[in-house]
Amino acid sequence: MSQKILFTKKWNSFAILIIGIIATIAVAFYTKKNSEAIAKHEFALVCNQ
């Protein structure tokens, strides 16, 4: 294989890895935010009773 093909394959693998890490972080923050909102809502319902 030529050096150009090897470089392209390495770059593609690295790009996919970075995109996966960014997606994982985004989903983790969204899940945390959503679960905190649900907890606040349930707490407010319990306090009003």
The succession of helices and strands, N to C, reads H
Structural class: mainly alpha
Give start-end ranges of low-pLDDT stretches.
Answer: none
As a whole number of angstroms, the C-alpha radius of gyration is 21 Å
Count of DSSP E strands? 0
Average pLDDT for all residues: 88
Distance between the termini: 71 Å
Helix content: over 70%
Please provide a written account of the structure:
The chain is an all-alpha fold and 49 residues long. The chain has a domain at 24-49. The protein has one helix at 3-48. The longest helix has 46 residues, at 3-48. It is rod-shaped. The relative contact order is 0.07. The model has no long low-confidence stretch (mean pLDDT 88).
